[in-house]
Amino acid sequence: MSYETLKYEVEDNILTLTLHRPERMNAFTAAMMRELIDAFDHADADDDVRAVIVTGEGKAFCAGADLEKGGDTFDRSKRAEEALGNRDRDGGGMVSLRIYESKKPVIAAVNGAAVGVGITMQLPMDIRLASKKARFGFVFAQRGITMEACSSWFLPRLVGMQQAAEWVYTGRVFDAEEALRGGLVRSLHEPDELMPAARRLAGEIAGKTSAISVALNRQMMWRMLGADHPMEAHKIDSRAIGFMGQSADAREGVESFLEKRPARFTMKPSRDLPDFYPWWEERKFS
Known about the structure:
Blueprint: E1 6-11, E2 14-19, H1 30-45, E3 51-56, E4 60-62, H2 91-100, E5 106-110, E6 113-115, H3 117-120, E7 127-131, E8 135-137, H4 151-159, H5 161-170, E9 173-175, H6 176-181, E10 187-189, H7 194-208, H8 211-224, H9 230-245, H10 248-258
Parallel strand pairs: 2-3, 3-5, 4-6, 5-7, 6-8, 7-10
Antiparallel strand pairs: 1-2, 8-9
Helix pairs in contact: 1-2, 4-5, 8-9
């Protein structure tokens, strides 16, 4: 795939998406929004992609919204209809929602500064690894705006209400150690070890697991974050394990274990997801 603001590279069943505006610290634009959504569409349709890593080019992951328009940056009345034809929608939120819908696991490799939408777009990603030089900031209150990219839903669920409140109310930029203590990232790495660590993790997923199992497990966990009773999990668990229990991948998973050999899973998300997927009601913006 060829994009203006991203690099799209697939190797060893791992897609690496690199935010690629290093001259602007990979600042987020309408073009980047459209290209990220398109890239995840292509990743979901490509059975050769088993896991996705998102990182940034140069010294930043993403410095947030591009502020080149000055004080009018966030004034929607003074911009074109750039959010895929709907000026009323938050572009960062459209990216977050698309990542949330992903059939493939998503790993953030946070190489540098990640503020504003640069951090909120990471929240629907499954696992975040960070360079020890990374910096984070939910800086909205210091810019006179509010949270975006669905972060008011994701952030408290990931780190708890108290930690989310502190970071959002102060709007301060904090270091990677604080991000780790607060549960925002999974691990810290020397800068030259970040991508190897992310690739090892992605490779463990891509090389040893059933793609259908991962796709179903990913959505089962994310969707249950909003459930009001464990019975909702029991309902979908029962349908999912009933479907997978009689599948070719389940047979292969057991037989390969008994025969002490690597599994060769053959089921593909593009064709083999169960008839009940998706089991949730699609939400519309209105």
